[in-house]
Amino acid sequence: MSDVQTLQRGTTRIDFDRFPRTSLCHQPTPIEAMPRLSELLGGPSLFVKRDDCTGLAMGGNKTRKLEFLVGDALQQNADILVTQGAVQSNHVRQTAAAACKVGMKCHVLLERRVPDRDASYEETGNVLLDNLFGASYDFRPSGLDMNGEAEAVTEDLRAEGQRPYFIPGGGSNAIGALGYANCAQEIADHSRDTGQHFDWLVMSTGSTGTHAGLVAGFAAIGYDLPVMGVSVRQPRERQMNAVHALTQKTLAKLGAEGVPLSRILVDDGYVGDGYGIPAESTLEAIRLTARQEGLLLDPVYSAKGMAGLIGMVRQGFFKPTDSVLFLHTGGSTALFAYQEQLLASLN
Ligand SMILES: *Cc1c(COP(=O)(O)O)cnc(C)c1O
Prior knowledge:
The protein has 11 helices and 12 strands. The protein is an alpha/beta fold. Bound molecules: pyridoxal-5'-phosphate.
């Protein structure tokens, strides 16, 4: 059986039913206009795809990936999910919730990646919810090979007789990226069904699974929508190479041909001082989006993505007639861990 079948109107569909999957996600997520933000910026028409509304435990982009990862874990008869992330990881929170939903345990490693945080940083926001979901966790200092650390823990648990399933940071492997290949198809379906077309898709890019899954999905169905990733951590070249590597693996999994590196678009102008450290432009994006659209972003990911979008509009990157879709990847749970800095930025 072929993974990719050609349908009418020259469009191709990916058959996701051939991959193990468990239902975790509200989908399709809504696409909404942002008229007041568009007007304020005086640029193209801005829209938002609400992947902050995926439905699992305050939502976010990891839920789509976890449908395939937890599906695979269930097929392998695992009884405990093991993963890793930064202290305020949204991925860890969604993984801990998914484990509860399917009746598994969850163990996570939290990397102290972000320096100089609020006193409550390791207690509130996502960490509070990790505790609520009963996940066990250990902290690690910053700078280790965290996937290596988590794999070592996985082997320890196996040696103890448990049945662990390792999920890499961000859920970013070819299995997790299927969730965003599926989202790409969802966006193409939306455009076909409603006649509403987009010229650009913009979102934040971190552990790469979201970006790679989208590029792979659009390539596999032959749909031409350029994806601009706004880096939250790495310099452009490194992020491009990492996204490209996972895109190729995801396309191989889909049984589709690879794409050139030139298909991967990254802007690294909005990282600021580093991962998890909001820049002025991050705080401005949180404020503008809240006050123009009543929409909550987060200080680590989605607001850096939105700062990128705002910056590109101001630089005249888009045509005034363009329709630009921002993928809201979620994360507002982390706002509470940045209370002091956020309040200071409102004065
Ligand atoms: C993880 C995350 C991202 C980045 O997605 P990747 O697939 O890791 O690149 C963006 N936004 C939020 C809110 C996230 O939690």
